[in-house]
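Structural biology now treats backbone shape like a language. To illustrate, our science desk offers a sequence and the tokens encoding its fold:
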Amino acid sequence: MIGTKIARLLIRMMGWRTEVSVPDYQRAIIIVAPHTSNWDFIIGKLALASVGRRADFLMKSTWFFWPLGPIFRAMGGIPVYRDGSHGSLTQQIIGRFGENRPMVLAITPEGTRSPVAKWRSGFWQVARATGVPVLLATLDFRKKLATLTAELPLTDSLDADMQALKHYYVGITPRHPANFIVD
């Protein structure tokens, strides 16, 4: 939606730097953490756009009203219906990846901007079911650095993979540190 040059200019004007070294997969899940502020969305979208990449994202369905709905969809927004009327979100996402079209999906495993000790594991279930790689993105507000530089190799153990995931984010400074729990 926003051009690479404009995104690069905006991210620099905000004082941020971007480091990306993982391959530009056509199908992947990007784990983005920490997620403690609405600024995470803005900086994350700009950082990806500044390197010519794009990712879809999940957002509460209540935000998809006119005129915001068409804008969020154009940006890659996927509405999340919490009333259960559309079935399991995990199954919906597996179905989307099953369509065999390019799709990179950014997910915040915390699921909220509030402090959460137990991160959601739907991304793990989707990646295991579909075989898509899990990439790790950080937003460090102290360093003003957005990174996409690692992959999480999944094992057969959800607990071990969640522990490895949380360990990766130790030392990253969110916008609101009190809202980020990794232990």
Notes: The chain has a mean pLDDT of 92.
